[in-house]
Amino acid sequence: MFDLSTGLFILLIVCVALTIFFEFINGFHDTANAVATVIYTNALKPTVAVVFSGICNFVGVFVGGLGVAMGIVNILPTEVLVDANIYHSISMILAVLITAIIWNFGTWYVGLPASSSHTLIGSILGIGIALSIADGKNSVNWTKAQDIGLALLLSPLFGFAVAIFVMYLFKRLIRNQYIYKEPIPGKTPPTWIRWVLTTCCGLVSFTHGSNDGQKGIGLLMLVLIVFVPKSFVINPDIKLAELNTVNTEISKYINIADSSRIVNKPDIKWYREIKKATLNISELISSQHSVDSMPTADKAALRKDIIVIGKNFEKLIAGKNIALSLNEINEVKHLISKLKNTTDFAPNWVKIAISIALGLGTMVGWRRIVETVGSKIGKQSMSYAQGTAAQLVGSSTIALSTGFGLPVSTTHVLSSAIAGTMVAKKGLKNLQKKTIKNILLAWVLTLPVTIIMSGLLFLLFRKIM
Questions:
Q1: Final residue in a domain of this structure, among 325, 342, 359
Q2: Partners of 378 in the beta sheet?
Q3: How distant, in Å, are the alpha carbons of 93, 94, 153, 315, 417 from that of 127?
Q4: Which of 218, 332, 347, 465 is the most exposed place for a label (fewest CB within 10 A)?
Q5: Total number of domains constituting the chain
Q6: Secondary structure letter of residue 370 according to DSSP
Q7: Are residues 239 and 226 in the same domain?
Q8: Collapsing DSSP states into helix, strand and coil, what is residue 378?
Q9: Are residues 59 and 204 located together in one domain of the fold?
Q10: Consecutive 10-residue runs of the chain (465 residues): their mean pLDDT?
């Protein structure tokens, strides 16, 4: 399957190893978000907490789907990944990996809860922007980048606000004052509180795996698409006859829609692009017997057309000018989801590798950030109610983002939720200004720093390779 020269094969191994190392760092960098509450409330001993969290992360990767992973892959257009000069593409991958690892490791070392999601997205955007400047053509899927950026921006604010509301509900509905007190060092809380906190810890870890684990899968798929596009640009298990049937059905509905009924210029453009893409797909697969027989360039073109159909149909629906009934729209959505099986895939060994890396990473290196999250955001240690509220809000927000196929910062969601519980208790004066300032600084700096670092590294690597 990997028909590469010795030099390229070595580079592939290096890039795969770096990807797994990034996910390993991601594990211990973000573990604190899940285990800080159970450790600081004495609900679980640290060793038990991180092992439990690691197992839940492992399971989360496997059952989380691929929506977030493909969101990462699709930030860059297919033609950028499948460059005629493979060393240009390798330069991109190395720039992303090295930037992401340096920033993640550096912020962990100083104990800052920085976002692995921001780090990865910034690194990918950096090479896209550098390519746009160097080659004079758009090399970033800005629509996808905008959706991801909005999710990363709003999720911490959402976590902060909802955590305040949840604490308000707790105080109205739960009269037991014990849960609002600070834990006594070394004293284990009552069994029911331990079960609640442990369950919430598991939920955060599981949702973290289902979201952050997908980022690792997406990153590893980027590596494989660059090095072995023939095997990984589209799903090798797809049957072309079935694909042709689905595409024909989509084309039928698009013809029913009729562009004469669409009055907005952007909608007309999207409609015509969908129609063109369905025709292209039909031409690409009509003369081929199987996926294996397709040239790599045709596979890349097929992938691009499938992405165009999915992206533009969503825009047409949002415009509400398409002449299809609700049932017809739902049927097209179903057909497009089947069509996307061609592009949205990852081999089981990729999922296993990322699951193990994230799970093992979760079990080490957690202490630095636990100290920041658990005791330095507020002027007081978390109460049992605060720990529960923060984790419920965090896990719910992450699960919601995963459902929409958007990467979200587990770090920022949990940190902001904890800050929200502190504010709910005694107002803004209950926050430690220095810690909040450092977290916000990391939040603000991560994207520009990683964009610049990744872009410069890419231009350097492309020049010397």
A1: 342
A2: 431
A3: 9, 10, 21, 27, 32
A4: 465
A5: 2
A6: H
A7: no
A8: strand
A9: yes
A10: 78 93 81 74 83 86 78 71 76 91 83 74 86 74 70 79 89 81 77 85 86 84 88 90 92 77 71 90 87 88 89 80 81 91 90 87 66 54 80 85 75 79 71 68 82 92 85
